[in-house]
Amino acid sequence: MTANFQSALPEIVILTAASLILLIDLWLPENKRHVSYWLTQFALLVAACVTVRGLHNEIVRAFHDLIVADMAGDVLRLFSFVALSLVLFYSRTYLTLRGLFRGETFVLMLFSLLGMQVLITANHFLTLYLGLELMSLSLYALVALQRDEAAPSEAAMKYFVLGALASGILLYGMSMIYGATGTLQIDLVAQSLAGTGDNRVLLIFGLVFAVSAIAFKLGAVPYHMWVPDVYQGAPTPITLLIGTVPEFAAFAMLLRLLAGALGAPEMQIQWQGMLAILALLSVTLGHVVAIAQANLKRMLAYSTIANMGYVLMGFLGADVSGYTAAMFYILAYVMTSLVSFGMILLLSRAGFEADRIDDLKGLNQRSPWWAFIMLLAMFSLAGMPPTIGFYGKLLVLQSAVKAGYVWLAVVGVLAALVGAFYYLRIVKLMYFDEPVDRSSIEARGDTRWLLSGNGLALLLFGILPQLPMGLCFVALVQSRYF
Fold first, then answer.
1. DSSP 333-400
2. Cβ-contact 57, 478 below 8 angstroms
3. pTM over the 0.70 mark
4. Which of 9, 417, 434, 447 sits most deeply, having the most CB atoms within 10 A of its CB?
5. Over the stretch 258-279, which tens digit does the pLDDT of each residue have?
């Protein structure tokens, strides 16, 4: 029993904190909402400390094999806690100015994080589905928090309808896999594959539905329809949340289902072909359509679609180096997205959303430092050295070549060149155009230091990528994804 609770201790911390903040916030006056904010940050700190202290060097299954605690899960948990904490730091001023700095925002964020943690540690199809739904329902509510605005409500409705469809597809796929293998336990599915000769067609159909649902959560083409509308319609802090923290949970979902449950060589052949097609469509459509966007959030949405295609390339290797490349790419992408959306939040003010590309014109004349930080983010998204994004793209392209998908790697390089056009267009606007808005850029001290550190980390880990790369590799080896 003690081992069970130790394995789920970070989730217990987050659940307890969310419940307490929900109650405490009821009694707080309007001018004391910062108490709920700091309690949320404290809960994330405690959860991170608990995770680091209980880092698993071996695989532990708990609660009758419903969850699995391993180093890969612990590292993804830790990344999630840090990312959400940065989201809250960057968003504080924006939320305050728009009346969203209140308890339900923080509680919903914590419940969505709890769903992600359950998803990361899932060892059973039911646990995985419960985590997915807890995360998704919380995100739907967060998108619609501005009830008096039409755009967030419309975005939330689209997200909800398409998300419900994807959840149904996933359930259907899981039921087929269960029918073919006779088990809902993820690690036992892999052991049951040898005896599924008569049910192979049913198993492949289940795989198709499961991969389709995961592709929706990642925002890969052709399941990408919700991404640009939700990114543009949601309040920018919620866009930042959706574009960063859930990516770790989606990666864990891919890892558990494909590398774990369906990692047998005969099944790898099936899902490698599907992922190759999804990756091809995502990198091409994402980069090409992004060129035509005038809205910065919408442009970054199509950039996300393209980047998820590169993540899928890493999985084509179907070995520990490929999974390491995908995990490292997710980390690099999340770090970069935190900076790019953080800059939008920094430039926004009361009555003004800095979400158009033209809003970045002449940023270097207003603040050379923030123009440099945004330049690092654009270079990283474009995959240009010496930023972390360069090594991310290099590793996933190497993985695709190693798996025999040379043609896909070539398409990936060409698509990256197309993407460099609109990323460098942002740099051109910042450094060579006259500013439309000459107002001073105000920022809280903690936001200023953390956003600057986040931006410099893109450069630091581009010059010294061994630390995050080695962490991802060790975590996956310890979790026996090889």
1. HHHHHHHHHHHHHHH-BTTB---BGGGGTTHHHH-HHHHHHHHHHHHHHHT-TTSHHHHHHHHHHHHH
2. yes
3. yes
4. 447
5. 888 787 777 888 888 889 999 9
